[in-house]
Amino acid sequence: MTLPELVSWGEALGRATQPPLVIALSGPLGAGKTVLAQAICRGYGVTEAVTSPTYALVHEYMSPRSSVFHVDLYRIAGVNDLTVLAWDEMMSARALVIIEWPDRAGAQLPAGHVPIDLAYAPDDASRRLLLAG
Domain tally for the chain? Predict the structure, then answer.
């Protein structure tokens, strides 16, 4: 899929989402995880600009439906760092939680999360493969 198709798909997912829900976005650097997170948030009703939480680690947004936590675990040293991020509170909130680099959460990633993997198409770096569920 092209990036515009990825955005359209993400917005549709956001419209269809009901809290509480954890979405785990995996894929290599630059594959479109943040673009997809932004689209999901837009479809979910977030009206403010959604930015990458790479350095802040967590951004919280408001939607008429619930809070949205956008989490980037790329820079954490290990699962013990999740406590500092108020991980348990986010996971138990009636919210939409979108996690980039979810593998860094290890066994702390809740059962029942929705995994979405993004990858570059092997024959065209401008296209993405998306595997969900």
Answer: 1
